[in-house]
Design brief:
The protein is of the alpha+beta class. Among the domains are: 96 residues, Copper Amine Oxidase, Chain A, domain 1 (2-Layer Sandwich); 115 residues, no CATH class. It has five helices and 15 strands. Strands 6, 7, 8, 9, 10 and 13 form a six-stranded antiparallel beta sheet that branches. 23% of the residues are buried.
Length: 303
């Protein structure tokens, strides 16, 4: 998208040319100071403005994240000093209306918060996208594993076939779901289940399966994936390479006996990421608080 810079009252860099440069040094340049304050707060630079009526801000590339497109946001100001959103060039997945609802820019004091939130949403989207592309590369040579995601990369599904339970030696096909907020690069919720929906799993098995994937709540996708597949404490993934179906990696683990636990019915359980340090109980066992209602039960690691 191109903007018309032919108007002599416009400046491509506040305070360096046009009307912005004609302001007396003894008088504060309100427009320039506003742009500087926004940049200091949100790290978003004003690349073009028409005094008292229009500002165009560019969303820069985040560190280590490469974006091919130029993303810009236009803020219009009416005669009463109220802000309004103009033309925007942003990724399709960015929900600008949701951000506007949180930070209405009719109050110009919210412009810096609105721009900062837009930048964070864009940065986190590209961070999630980069992580999923790296994970796809790792899985490209593996036949019995795949990953998919929705358009805004807020839901990721990792499918792993031939996951072996080290206690019972049963083989499971497993799907792990990761749920993200738009403005976060790490998932806030994890849920794993077996493909065989007609089989009722005990809460103990469900908790063990969720804990098998817990590195995904703490690390980027590729490092978390490597930690999971190299683990042989609870489950072992017998992965099959694409170039040779007979090339299956299997780990030998000590045989252990697991008593089947009777339960009163199937219960959905989730893992949630929390920033607070987790307490531990006897023998290093992680505590869980299960809250139930008629629809679902969640495993909350916030305690």
């Amino acid at each position: 998208m191109e903007y018309d810079n032919s108007n002599s009252s416009e400046s491509s860099s506040p305070g360096t040319s046009g009307e912005g440069a004609a302001v007396s040094r003894d008088k504060p340049d309100v427009q320039t100071e506003l742009c500087r304050n926004i940049y200091q707060f949100a790290k978003v630079q004003c690349i073009n403005f028409k005094r008292d009526s229009r500002f165009i801000f560019e969303i820069p590339n985040s560190e280590n994240i490469v974006k091919s497109d130029l993303y810009t946001i236009e803020i219009l100001v009416d005669d009463k000093g109220r802000g309004k959103l103009g033309k925007c060039v942003l990724p399709d997945c960015i929900n600008v209306n949701s951000i506007l609802w949180q930070y209405p820019i009719d109050n110009l004091n919210n412009v810096k918060h609105f721009l900062k939130s837009c930048k964070r949403n864009i940065d986190c989207y590209f961070c999630r996208l980069q992580q999923i592309n790296e994970l796809k590369i790792l899985l490209s040579k593996i036949r019995n594993g795949c990953v998919c995601h929705n358009n805004d990369v807020t839901l990721i599904e990792l499918t792993m076939h031939n996951v072996k339970d080290v206690y019972t030696y049963d083989i499971h096909d497993v799907i792990m779901y990761l749920h993200y907020h738009f403005d976060e690069a790490r998932p806030y919720k994890l849920y794993a289940s077996t493909v065989a929906n007609d089989v009722v799993r005990s809460p103990t098995f469900q908790r063990r399966l969720n804990m098998y994937f817990v590195p995904f709540l703490k690390k980027d996708l590729s490092p978390a994936f490597m930690q999971v597949i190299n683990s042989c404490v609870e489950f072992i993934w017998q992965k099959v390479l694409v170039d040779n179906e007979d090339n299956v990696e299997v780990y030998e683990c000590e045989e252990r006996i697991c008593e089947n636990e009777e339960d009163g019915g199937y219960v959905d359980q989730f893992l949630y990421r929390r920033d607070r340090r987790l307490r531990t109980t006897n023998e290093g066992e992680m505590p869980f608080e299960i809250t139930s209602n008629k629809d679902e039960a969640e495993i909350d690691t916030s305690h």
